[in-house]
Amino acid sequence: MNIYKVAILxxxxxxxxxxxxxxxxxxxxxxxxxxxxxxxxxxxxxTTVYDHNSQDVLFRAFYxxxxxxxxxxxxPGGGQMDFSQSTVFIASNxxxxxxxxxxxxxxxxxELSFDGWKIDIANPTAPPRPDFKQKGVxxxxxxxxxxxxxxxxxxxxxxxxxxSDFVSPMKYARKEGLWxxxxxxxxxxxxxxxxxxADFIL
Length: 202
Fold this sequence. Notes:
Order of helices and strands: EHHEEEHEEHEHEHE
Strand content: 25-35%
Shape: elongated
Structural class: alpha/beta
Helix content: 25-40%
Radius of gyration: 19 Å
Largest sheet: 7 strands, mixed
Strand order of the largest sheet: 6-5-2-1-7-8-9
Distance between the termini: 24 Å
Number of strands: 9
């Protein structure tokens, strides 16, 4: 029997956004584990179509996210906001703590930078909202894809994402002989570049 090793890469921000849209709730570590199992079932089903004498096994899942921002900032109207006391900060830290204890999962964390306050265009009379930007997450995903492709640590990579920034590492991995599976979590519109450089769409 042929055994294929599979790595599953989560773009955490994309996964949370799509999961909330589909289930109307924030994902917990247990739901991440359930999703990993579901992905493996779907991949094995595809594999057996082409090769009945083969099996896909999980090498490791990688979850990429940002540490929650915990700084203190001055509001536009005066007064300070301590983000370390926010429910988002507390929930994100608890979520990351749970992910760290999961079997066959590596948590890769980038940084979240505070870029000031922004007006909600849809509701301009509402108080300004904090404007955060991810730093280092896409780079970590790209570097890990390149590393796995170069070292031949896996045979297949599942990318749970919707960002065309990953096209270059996807192309490189395919040139090195890996199969790339794209899981856009039932997103209606998938960017054409992502489709072009994936071997399979889950």
